[in-house]
Amino acid sequence: MKLPGKTVERLSEYRRTLLECLNEKKNFIFSHDLAARLQITAVQVRRDLMLIGYSSVQRKGYDIKELIDTIGNIIDSPKSINVAIIGIGNLGRAVAGYFKGKRSQLNLVASFDTDPQKVSKVVSGVRCSHHDEMEKIIKEFDIRIAILTVPADYAKEIAEEVVRFGIKGILNYTTIPLNVPSWVFLEEYDMITSIEKVAYFVKENTI
């Protein structure tokens, strides 16, 4: 069964929170405790876990390690997936620094830029190659996911190129909405929209 995108997002958040619980030396957690940490309802947590077939609830709550493994079996690829960052400016470097090593099944293997000060160097732990080498490197390393942190003016052109080179998923950090073929999964993160959303609720809470 193919899960809804929002459910996958929450499962990822559950796992990240559960890993934090392990670091706190916790072995079990109740649905309402997990929900409280994520500011959602316990009903939502139980619905999501039932959707992936997890119902192993003990009197002391969910077994944290078991639940982490169950979520991983659902949302992780059985084989590792290679990822590239296109545009290794300030945002690209920040994403690379945060991303690398966080998930064993997701490998950040390349970055691309046109700045001669970055090309052929290791930037934020990943080797940067020139834009002209994208097709060759994407195919050579079987890169499936591209993270776009390029200037907005180039976003559509770059997206068209990486799709043509075989990319199957794009995370778009630019402010330009993209159109991609149906076989490419597109996730768009508009920082301005997110900030404006936060500002709206701040305004509403202070009037």
Give a written overview of the molecule.
The chain is an alpha/beta fold and 207 residues long. The protein folds into 2 domains: 5-74, Orthogonal Bundle (Arc Repressor Mutant, subunit A); 81-192, NAD(P)-binding Rossmann-like Domain (Rossmann fold), CATH 3.40.50.720. The chain contains 8 helices and 10 strands. Strand 2 (57-58) and strand 3 (61-63) form a beta hairpin. The longest helix is centred in the N-terminal third of the chain and has 19 residues, at 5-23. The radius of gyration is 20 Å and the shape is globular.
Topology summary:
Elements: H1 5-23, E1 28-29, H2 31-38, H3 42-51, E2 57-58, E3 61-63, H4 64-75, E4 81-86, H5 90-99, E5 106-113, E6 122-123, E7 126-130, H6 134-140, E8 143-148, H7 155-164, E9 169-172, E10 185-188, H8 191-206
Parallel strand pairs: 4-5, 4-8, 5-7, 8-9, 9-10
Antiparallel strand pairs: 1-3, 2-3, 6-7
Distance between the termini: 45 Å
Order of helices and strands: HEHHEEHEHEEEHEHEEH
C-alpha-based Rg, rounded: 20 Å
Number of domain units:
2
| Strand count | 10
The CATH class designation of the largest domain is: Alpha Beta
> Beta-strand percentage?
15-25%
Give the biggest sheet. 7 strands, mixed
Shape designation = globular
CATH superfamily of the largest domain: NAD(P)-binding Rossmann-like Domain
Q: Which structural category do the helix and sheet elements fall into?
A: alpha/beta
The helix tally amounts to 8
Under CATH, the topology of the largest domain is which?
A: Rossmann fold
